[in-house]
Each structure stands twice: as C-alpha cells, then as structure tokens.
Amino acid sequence: MKKLLALFSLGLLALAQEVVVYPGFAEVKEPVVLPPGAWVYLAGEKLSRTAPGSLRLLGVEEVERVYQGTAVLFRYRGEGPATLRYLYTGLSGEVFYTLEEGRLTAWARLKLEGEAFEAQKLTLLAGEAPLLEAKAAPGMALRALTEAPGETPFGLFRYELPPRRIEAGLTEIPFLRADVALVRLLRYQGPFRTDRLLPLERGYRFTAPFPLAPGSLEVVEGGLFLGQAPLPGTPKGEWAEAWLGRDLEARLERRVSLLNQGEKEATYLVETRLENPYPYPVTLLLAESLPKPFRLDFPGANRLPEGYRLELPLKPQEAKTLTYRLTLSR
User: Fold this and answer.
1) What are phi and psi of 91, to 5 degrees?
2) How big is the chain by its Cα radius of gyration, in Å?
3) Where would one find the signal peptide in this protein (predicted)?
4) Which candidate, 232, 231, 233, 227, places its Cα nearest to that of 245?
5) Which residues pair with 105 in a beta bridge?
6) I want to staple 91 with a disulfide (CB 3.0 to 4.6 A). Which of 26, 77, 78, 208 is the partner?
C-alpha cells in the first residue's frame, strides 16, 4: 500500500469539479489522469463524509477498492483520463425567497463542512424528496434522476448556478429575480362557526415567474418587514400562495337565524359580512366544512363533499354580505 502511495498518488484537477447539490448531500465529479492498473486516492477528511459505496472511478473498469485510513486504493483495467465520483454528505443546499415591494428573488443556501470546492459546473436540486432524507439510500435517488434527465422526479426542482468557489460555512447566492403582480388575500378556512366575529388570515398570491421549490419566503412591503411564511413547491405559471398569520384589522361578521325547524332537520339563514378596511383591493377566500349530513343553497359557491369554497374580490373600503341557506339534521 505504501509503495503504491509513493508511485501512483496524483492530484485531482479541482478547478474542473462538477457539483450537484441536493437537500442532504452533493454529488461530486472530479477529473483524474490514471496510471495503468492501480491508483491511490488520498481522500483525507473527505472520506469520513463520503457516503459508503458511492466512491467510483468512471471511464475505466474497476476491479477492486481497498480502504486504508483516509486513502483508497483503486485497481482497474485501463488508464488515462477518468472521473472520480462520490456522494459528499458535508455539502447540502436549499432554496429560500425574498419578496420586496413586488420583486421576488430566489436564493440558494449552500452549507459546506470541510475543505472548499471549486465548482466549474454547479447545479442545485431542491424540493420535497422524502427518499433523499434517508442518508442510507442516496444512490437510489441519483439512479432515478439518471433515468429521467431534465425532469423533476420526486418533486425536485433543478437550478443551474454560476460556477464558483464554495467555501466552508454558509453561502447564500441570489440566482433568479422577477417582478410579480401581487393579489392580497384574506382567508377563513375551517369548520362552520356561529360566532359573531370570525378571524381572518392575511396572505399573498402571485403567478410563479419560474419554478418554485418549497422554501421560506420573507415579505417586505412599504419598507416594513411583514413576516416569513412557507412557500409550497409551485410550477412556473401556476399560482403560488403564502400566508403570514392572523390579520389584526379585518374581521368576518356573522349572523345565523333559524328559518324553520322540523322533527328531523332545521334550516338556517347564514349571513356573513366583510368590510375591506384597506386602501387597496383584497380577495376573500372562504372555505368551510359543514356538519354532515347537510344541504346547502349558496349561489356562486363551489360545493364540496365536506362543505364549500368561495372567492370574493373586494375593492378598497368596500363591504359585501354573503347569504346562504343551510339545512342540518337535528
């Protein structure tokens, strides 16, 4: 082993590294020039963060690998240019977003433990990928990606980032920007209630200008920080919604009156009123689940097996009252 270390240890051409960063690890490819028959890879501390079984030499026919300390002896058939490939658990990535005055920016957050990488080609795959959370089987996800190039298997989103040196620690890189047209939302979503006042959530809706991997969204408007919210994965061109918590000004006012009552059921008149307190338009989203069995007479609402859903636009300072009849078993 020591003789092979002396004869065949070659430096890697780090400037040509290809790095694909996943939510919990990274696939790294480094070019090497191999002597005939055998070569020793001096991995150093990288070996402790390399997923077992992921270290490979591409471009030659491997015969065996022998691990000794932080070095790996490769025996193979062939020689010349090849690629050293491994999965590195010391590098991971995710996407997050900022929304400032209607401008959406996508950021990549890369976390590296260990020595720096010189990524000549850098790709970030982010999204909801339960398979990738199991560190014991990262190769399964990579095989699936190889079988479906250009697609987003397991809910993964692919982003090409500029070549760069990745230093140890946290690195945050803005890589996509676009102006978006915001729709301000107020929402009540929950079980049917007869309370006089119903609380509302505040949020935003916009058309995704590019594919949005799941991540956190920070919202700033009028120079004020309005909060952070989870942003779900959204394909380009689809609506994205983010909810920032309870609205402190807007309220739904509700009145429920008994219209008639029999031995088996009763019918109620439900009136729900909202006055938009803001100097800008809002859209009210109502989604209520109703006690079963029920009959609902609510023109304009989208009837669902569990209740209904309705969207209602309101102009600045405008008030509207919604009325429906609800029949329930006694």
Assistant:
1) -125, 125
2) 29
3) 1-16
4) 227
5) 98, 177
6) 26
